[in-house]
Write a structure and sequence with these properties.
The structure is a single chain. The protein is α+β, with helices and mostly antiparallel strands and 591 residues long. Among the domains are: 135 residues, Beta-Lactamase (2-Layer Sandwich); 42 residues; 147 residues, Heat Shock Protein 90. It contains 16 helices and 18 strands. Strands 1, 2, 3, 4, 5, 6 and 7 form a seven-stranded antiparallel beta sheet that branches. Strands 13-15-16-18-17 form a five-stranded mixed beta sheet. Strands 9-8-11-10 form a four-stranded antiparallel beta sheet. α1 runs antiparallel to α8, α10 runs antiparallel to α11 and α11 packs across α12. It starts with a helix and ends in an 8-residue tail after the last strand. The relative contact order is 0.06.
Length: 591
């Protein structure tokens, strides 16, 4: 049973705390969606702006070699006609090449390949190497692809800088990762292929553009070319490698069912089909929202604690008089009828206490009257007992009569008196525990007296093994059933009846059976007898004719519990038997 105080706490949780946390959850979801939408809009705008900057940067880098066409002297180098010119000035040409190298800070190395002589030279750190023959350069995959391409440029994925001419001006300690752009140079008028300018650029320049998308350490940005190769990534270990299949699938997903927020922007010329990708973990995107939700939860816990404290105080003040009244009722249930009730309350509790006080006064008056009646009944019973003969006096008197019989030379009389005195002595042990053997011996004594009365033609048999005989049972539990045999058989003229007493142990149950074939019952009579015997003690009405059976049944239940009792039945309407059901426990074993 739930107390009023616990119900008040439950009401608090149901109508205050739970709605509050539901509202926090609703606000969190709403704010989360609003923040996501807002940040996605900002990210899209940033990606649009930075995409344009990337496209402009690479456009400048790709168009950088076109300056050769505006500088005749530099163009003559690729045309290999400068050395034959009377205007050829080596120092001036070196200055022009150095200036070309120094045009952009991110240029790490430049290679000039002159197709006419199959020679190449490089510029590294503003120093020009000697020319070196490279007849197989166009057979390389990237060079061959560019040579047969309709485009004038080719961008290779980032890799460690390479010493193209194996010259000393490139130190072995330079491990810079560079992106390589190959430019195909042709004569504008004749479309003659003149050579290739290869420019290695540092990643820092366009990396700074990409990194402006990242606003948190856990965010990342990727620049992916049309062949799904990573040209730049916040994680440097990914640069130059193929993009993972999982990321590629996530980028192509239309629904947002993944944990990370992935934004992708496809770039246009000159970075045709390149993709700029921004990856934002959801925990970063919604960190501010979660912190706000956590603060609200902490505030809610504080409010809930104060609410619990408040309802605890209120419920204590309200339920305290109810608890006191309940305690008084439990005291009355324990038997204490002298309970003080207050008279100075004007509320509902005071009204209850007033009526309970009046009710207890009436109950006490009734108990006092019943107690006096009980005392009077006891006195009457005591007077009746005083008028009865003391069993011990009868036992001693029978012993004296037996002695007189012996002196009078009458052993038969002595035997009968002795048997009767044994029964008197055994009856004094009523409501005690005895061995089954003692109960059987008393039955034999009783039968010997009945034989003297009815003659020696009484038919009976007692079959109990030693195990059963050594068990203990309440005294006078079988003997009344033997009395019923004579009462309902011999006294009614059924002298051919047979009394049979036997027992058996099945599992944890001892069965003792007393049956006779001299009298029986109809089905309605048997049903009526069962109903009278199986009624609870002091309930129902039954004939005094069968009070012994009910007494045995009630004693068995009292001593062994509800699993014990009597079973009454007939065998095909001819043989009537009574079976005693006794669960085996410690009381059955002989001490």
């Amino acid at each position: 049973m739930k107390s009023i105080q616990s119900r008040l706490f439950l009401m608090l949780l149901t109508f205050i705390i739970v709605p509050y946390f539901l509202s926090v959850l609703f606000i969190y979801e709403y704010t989360k969606n609003d923040v996501e939408r807002h940040k996605l809009e900002i990210s899209h705008l940033q990606m649009e702006k930075l995409s344009e900057e990337l496209e402009q940067y690479f456009n400048d880098m790709i168009n950088l070699p076109y300056i050769l066409y505006r500088n005749p002297d530099l163009f003559r180098i690729l045309n290999n006609s400068s050395e034959d010119s009377i205007y050829f000035n080596p120092i001036s040409m070196e200055k022009i090449i150095e200036n070309f190298y120094l045009m952009r800070n991110e240029i790490r190395q430049v290679r000039f390949y002159i197709d006419k002589n199959k020679e190449a030279f490089i510029v590294y750190n503003a120093m020009i190497s000697a020319r070196k023959s490279q007849p197989d350069l166009l057979t390389q995959d990237s060079m061959n692809k560019l040579f047969h391409s309709n485009f004038n440029y080719l961008i290779e994925p980032p890799k460690q800088i390479e010493n193209y001419n194996n010259t000393a001006i490139v130190p072995q300690s330079d491990n810079t990762v560079v992106m390589t752009i190959h430019h195909k140079i042709e004569d504008v008028l004749s479309n003659e292929f003149l050579g290739i300018i290869t420019i290695d650029i540092d990643l820092d320049a366009y990396a700074r553009i990409c990194d402006r998308l990242v606003q948190d350490d856990e965010e990342s940005v990727l620049l992916i070319d049309s062949n799904d190769i990573v040209m730049y990534a916040s994680d440097s270990s990914l640069i130059g490698s193929n993009i993972s299949g999982d990321l590629l699938r996530w980028m192509n997903m239309e629904d947002d069912t993944k944990e990370d927020i992935i934004l992708s922007k496809t770039l246009s010329e000159p970075l045709n089909q390149w993709k700029l990708v921004k990856i934002t973990p959801s925990r970063v995107l919604f960190s501010d929202v979660r912190q706000t939700a956590y603060r609200n939860i902490l505030v809610g816990i504080g409010v809930g604690f104060l609410g619990l404290l408040m309802i605890g105080i209120i419920s204590y003040r309200i339920t305290r008089p109810i608890k006191l009244l309940s305690k008084k009722v439990r005291t009355i249930e324990g038997g204490n009828t002298d309970v003080p009730f207050v008279d100075n309350r004007d509320d509902e509790i005071g009204h209850l206490e007033k009526h309970m006080k009046e009710m207890m006064n009436r109950i006490n008056l009734h108990i006092e009257r019943e107690y006096k009646l009980e005392i009077e009944n006891r006195k009457n019973q005591f007077r009746a007992l005083k008028s009865q003969v003391n069993p011990h006096f009868l036992f001693n008197a029978l012993q004296s009569i037996g002695a007189v019989a012996l002196r009078s030379n009458s052993p038969k009389i002595y035997q009968l008196v002795t048997s009767l005195s044994k029964m008197m002595r055994y009856s004094i042990r009523a409501d005690q525990w005895v061995l089954v053997r003692d109960e059987v011996e008393n039955i034999h004594t009783y039968l010997s007296l009945q034989m003297e009365r009815f003659g020696n033609n009484i038919n009976y048999s007692i079959k109990l093994n030693e195990t059963i005989l050594d068990m203990t049972i309440p005294s006078m539990i079988l003997q009344p059933l033997v009395e019923n045999f004579f009462k309902h058989c011999y006294e009614e003229g059924c002298y051919d009846a047979h009394l049979n007493i036997y027992g058996e142990i099945q599992g944890e149950i001892l069965y003792l059976v007393v049956e006779n074939d001299g009298s029986s019952m109809t089905v309605p009579e048997l049903q009526t007898l069962r109903e009278n015997i199986y009624t609870a003690p002091y309930e129902g009405t039954f004939s005094h004719e069968h009070i012994g059976l009910k007494n045995i049944h009630d004693r068995l239940i009292l001593n062994y519990g509800q699993d014990a009792g009597l079973e009454l039945d007939t065998k095909q309407g001819q043989v009537f038997f009574v079976r005693l059901v006794i669960p085996l426990d410690s009381k059955l074993t002989n001490d």
